[in-house]
Write a structure and sequence with these properties.
The chain is about 25% helix and about 25% strand. It is of the alpha/beta class.
Amino acid sequence: MPQLSIIMLAGSLRPSPLRAELDESVLRMPLRADYCLLDGWLEALSGVEPSAELRIVVTDLRDIDTLNGMLARPSRRQGAGRKIGVIREPNAWRGTAGLVRDLAEGLPPEALVAVLEAGCLPVAPLREVLSAISADCGGVIVAGRDREPAGISVFRRAALDRVSRIGYSDMKEQFIPALHQQEFKIALVERDDPVLRIRDRRSYLQVIANCHDVTENASVNGERKVDASARLIGPCVIERGGSVDAGAIVHESVVMSGARIEAGAVVSRSVIGRGVVVEAGERVIERILSPVAVGARAPQLPAWQGESSQGNLATE
């Protein structure tokens, strides 16, 4: 197998609506009580040669400390043994293809460069994608249902020479068409799974619905984070450190670490950010509540509590 470098794009000059409202890294978003999107990607990389370095590229300097703190937790055994670096995007004006070309500089021509879109739910293990690359293949693109790009692609480093050393170059509008024009063979790996991206409240809750395990609510109750008289209806995530008090109702919603739903409150199709308190009897319907939005009602959390926050760079 040729040398492999893995680049994950996890920031953007134009923050997603969810990032703008919640100010949390997309990789930090919980999918279960003790499992976030970063864990999903680390699982998708398991089985790939551990010597392949993973570089997570962010645009906000705060994300570097956040993600390094997350990766340092003992529970993240999926990444054990792999060199993982979190770096700030060096040249925002280069575009996605330009960024990948710059980061792949110095690799041998036959090396493989995997490009991952952090905000997507992984639809395939990377090892399966790598197996689709033949000797005469310049790259592989993964697509989900209806051939929608699924946020995973792999290119030979030599193919990236088609990207200019200067100026702006994106993936879909410039780089991929240039490869076709120059008769570079690009393979397509098709999956029947829907492509799920976390960009706003609706898309995030849709991801939760697709990932929901019916045993999840029972396990949360067993840990006494949810009062016995509280009700969790539909796909819900009560992240470790979150709590739901007596008589409260949580419907198809996410309660992040440090957040509290007080007695008799109702939360429906909403995302309650870290440390936010929904007061007794309050109704929160189809909203995002973040510490910034609710101001004084949100207790100040140490940066490390619940694993900190911030990032989401999607390919153009």
